[in-house]
Amino acid sequence: MSAAPRRAPAEQRGRPRSEKSRVAVLTAAAELMLAGGFEHLTVEGIAAAAGVGKQTVYRWWGS
User: Fold this and answer.
1) I want to staple 36 with a disulfide (CB 3.0 to 4.6 A). Which of 40, 42, 51, 56 is the partner?
2) What is the largest CA-CA distance in the chain?
3) How much is the pTM?
4) pLDDT by residue (tens digit) across 17-29?
């Protein structure tokens, strides 16, 4: 009996993630948090401020 092929974890599939984008998202989130507080923080706002798409944010942080 042959074992099924192992799949890479979701984090490792597809194109490698950009460290530059990760840093931009973290920086944007921190700046927006300081400017408006947590209650006004949105994924859309963070992505726009970081210059990335929302999907980039969700790829790094799924929840």
Assistant:
1) 40
2) 60
3) 0.72
4) 889 999 999 999 9
